[in-house]
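Usage

Read records sequentially. Each one opens with the input sequence:
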Amino acid sequence: MKINRLAFVFLIIGFVGVNQLFAQADQDQDTLMWSGRKYGVVTERYVPSVVMVYYQRTSAEPPFQSWSKNNTRGHIAEYEIINNSIYLNKIEAKRFRTRGSNLWSASGIDTIVKPEYFDIMSLDTNQSDVEGAVLADWFSGVLELRLVPKDKKEQKSDEAKGTRYLNIVDGRIVDNVFLSDEILANYKAGKAKLGHSQAVMYHRNNRFKEFYLRCAMDREEVTYNGHKGLFQKEANGLTLVMEFFGNDPTKCETNWLGRVREDSGAPFGSWVLRDDSLFLSEITTHNDSGKHGQGMSDYLADSIVDGVGYCHRRFTADHCFFADWLNGEYVIHYGNWQTNSFGVADYVVYKTQKIRVKDGVVKSSQFSPSSFEDDEKELSATEFKICNENQIWSVDDKQLAEVVGNYKSPKKNPAYKGDKTVLRNWFLNQPITDERAKDRLFRVRIGFMVNCDGKAGRWQLISKNKGELFEFANMVLETVKTMPQNWIPATDRKGNAVDCWQILEFTISNGILTNANYK
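and closes with the structure output:
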């Protein structure tokens, strides 16, 4: 399976089942009531709504389903600021999952319900609720608010001519700054400076967006028995490192939300799956700090499970850190990045592994299509072997002899079952797809061995192609390796099947492999 770098982001989001997580530029806005005024909550691509952060923090699966191009999140929420805290009042949804099945509202009429309908509740059960509303203490970050004027008077007010920023920690407002459109435009044009509080809030908001942008665009890596893969949690759009901090950016020791710097973002980890346990081997931010265990103490505190400090049992000899905070379902996509003919990077996935983790220990694992151990067994069973290393034969060909050595010729050369027409027709349907091969005419000769069982292997490019023609010749070689194994082995003068070198030669015209022939 190939995924180009642009499409990969959206496919990964689809894999984890959170395509409603990220708001589009034209996303229907949530609303917020504050001091008798109604505000629209500005949405940004990749930045989740307050409600969706609840599902990130709890690792629960969001029940909403997209209902239009203007509402890919599948819901619109109504909030209210009470006693300097943000409360969730109502949720509007047209389509969502229930415990038993999908539910559509009758005749397409919106369904507006209380948060309790979706089992949404405050994380702190001891907080005092406002009747019918839920304290959104799971949310930490920056909200951009634009006034929704109720009349012409409000439309002409200063509040309607700018953006109000709320810095929220654990559902409570810790900072509140208004920035007019005029001042911001002049600042971006280099004609004015922002006040200290304005600058801090403006850059804090940019880092808030940058955090989620990196979560969406980048992937963490894991290494398992020498195989590298992309690592993620199926029910979460954040990095696995963030799970140590309860998926709360403000709890991260990098303190990215409180700094004026803009080069920080979500911390990303490199992982090792070893002896059924997960280890963190490296942490990086946008400025590449904390690599290979160095500085990990700036990110990670004592063990969550047993309180053992990271300087003792938790670090391994190679500076890996036992990840006992990881719990849930995770997926690993094994593959590699390749550049296609259009110059776009493709991530080619050849194997997927789903694992269930409890306190950093893998409790169950399922591979698709098969495990690496099964692959090795199959490879061993199908590995090309010759029958007698001390008695090798070869068809009579000077160029072949220069590459593989001089051997006696058999009485009968290896031949393809049926006739050469069958072989030629197969190769005619396997063209070179590289655009550079168009309007090119050249020859390719490939040496290989047919063993006494009629199996082919030990492929060798024996024609002396140069430059682009050498690249094309190797493309032909890769195609030849996939041809059907329908060879009749060579025989000696006593009629015994023997191991024998053979050649295949082609004329390539406009990328088509024509005149396939052998001796």
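Summary fields computed downstream for this record:
- The chain has ten helices and 28 strands.
- The chain has a mean pLDDT of 80.
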